[in-house]
Amino acid sequence: MSHQIALPTEADVENRGNDSRQSDGTIEIAPDLAYRPLAFVNVIFFGLPQAGDRQWVLIDCGLRTLRNLIAWAAEDRFGEGARPAAIILTHGHFDHVGAVESLAKEWDAPVYAHPFELPYLNGTASYPPPDPDVDSGLIARLSPLFPAGPVNVSQHLCSLPDDGAVPYMPGWRWIATPGHAAGHVSLFREADRALIAGDAFVTTNQESAYGAITREPEMHGPPMYLTTDWEAAHNSVRALAALKPNLVIAGHGRPTKGTMMQNALQELADNFERIAVPERSRYLQRPARPQDGSAYRRA
């Protein structure tokens, strides 16, 4: 079992008194950045409140069953009938793309992802199987039951630009952070050092049902049961720690900020093998990588 790093109350953005919980349940963590915790995953909204049609961006799409909650939250935040300029996906795991087919169609919105993720999003490939033996937590043990098959948004699907720009998010850049998924990306804004980490690392114990539900803050490696390349995952955490982000919102857990968060992230990067890597995993000796095709199972 891995050992994780507790995050103090001072690092928890939600407990600092400067967030704004809206009637739709979204939580504002910067003037143009808000998120909605839905079940055990976070959906993120970029754009100023009441920005209007095509003036905002959705980052990740949660679970399929939560599609209406995402749409209602978006309408409340940005205005009636306000559609996004784009949907950006950090990666294509089921809990990040569940509602993407329905929402992309309804909104007629382009969906952007890393080229290595496109086979999971155009209906041609499934992810490698999850590994329930990495941890004794309930969510890890149930992971073989999670959907692994692809979604198909090929009509709306686009590759992220080669220059690192994030479409319709000025000032942000995308960073390749593989390991948890072949084409996983994180998003970073230099101006305020805000980081959308996806699942490159998370801020709760996602293997445990208790941790996933309560979102008790801790600096945690990527969810172990779906991570298929641990060397790449370590390198990704190193790269993100080197950015020294001031504000972090991950795919799971509470947003965190400040020096204590930075120190915890650096500790995770420095001691990743001891802290985050499971004692056993089918992917420790045989990582699944896009370069040799082992990251893809034909649908």
Question: What's the short version?
Answer:
This protein is α+β, with helices and mostly antiparallel strands. The chain contains 10 helices and 17 strands. A hairpin with a 5-residue loop joins strand 15 (247-250) and strand 16.
Can you walk me through this structure?
The structure is a single chain. The protein has helices at 67-78, 94-97, 100-107, 118-121, 138-142, 209-214, 230-242, 258-270, 272-275, 282-285, and strands at 5-6, 20-21, 27-30, 33-38, 41-46, 57-59, 86-88, 111-113, 125-126, 157-159, 172-176, 185-189, 194-198, 218-219, 247-250, 256-257, 297-298. It has 299 residues and is α+β, with helices and mostly antiparallel strands. The longest helix has 13 residues, at 230-242. The protein starts with a strand and ends with a strand. The model has no long low-confidence stretch (mean pLDDT 92).
Could you give the topology of this structure?
Elements: E1 5-6, E2 20-21, E3 27-30, E4 33-38, E5 41-46, E6 57-59, H1 67-78, E7 86-88, H2 94-97, H3 100-107, E8 111-113, H4 118-121, E9 125-126, H5 138-142, E10 157-159, E11 172-176, E12 185-189, E13 194-198, H6 209-214, E14 218-219, H7 230-242, E15 247-250, E16 256-257, H8 258-270, H9 272-275, H10 282-285, E17 297-298
Parallel strand pairs: 6-7, 7-8, 8-10, 13-15
Antiparallel strand pairs: 1-14, 2-3, 3-4, 4-5, 5-6, 9-17, 11-12, 12-13, 15-16
Helix pairs in contact: 7-8
